[in-house]
Amino acid sequence: MGRFGHFAALLAIAALFGATPVAGAETGGNAWAADACQQAGYLAMVGSDGTTFDNVGACVSYAAQGGTFATGIIIPAGQVATLSNAAWALTPCDRLTYGYQLNLGALVPLASKPAGCFDAALPGATIGPFPTATLLRIFLTDTGTGIPESGGTCDYTFFSDGVHALVTGTNPYTVDIRDSFFCELEAAAEPTRRGGGAAAVVCPAAGHPLPASPNARCAPVPGG
DSSP assignment of 74-92, as one string? Predict the structure, then answer.
């Protein structure tokens, strides 16, 4: 019975000026947050609950009230992310949909496939610009084959910062997302091997850690 599947894509962030490195949510407390929000730092910061900031004061106030900051792929205010070179690979057999999510909001689908084992190129997208920094997550939704003898039907969504994803490299990053393998691996279950393909990601700011791969961090952006 079939294979693990994945999708592959290239994500690039344009015009990387003025971006401020964002450390983990627990780093430094309010004093750290107050400093990080200064000098346009808030333009590259998003709350871990998806809260965005229009100015320094809103950023500092959020931290003072116990808010924490998101880590991962952040599109700085005024910048554009381009998702390209996407593809189904490793001949996935399940019904799949891939796309992206902004600030933990609604899922934006970009392409889907029916049941059947095949590879295929997929459309990409230009994302942004936005007036505030924006948290970006790539997702893969798996609803199985719909055939009882081949795993039946499920409804799992895997994100680029979840246990089914593997993030490697620096500027660009490689992001792999595994499917459920005929509905056998739910979203909370970590597979024996994460990922399975390539989604290269150019991080929008120096120093952003990507939770899916603790050792993966953006390299400094020249002139950033």
Answer: EE-TT--EEEEEEEEES--
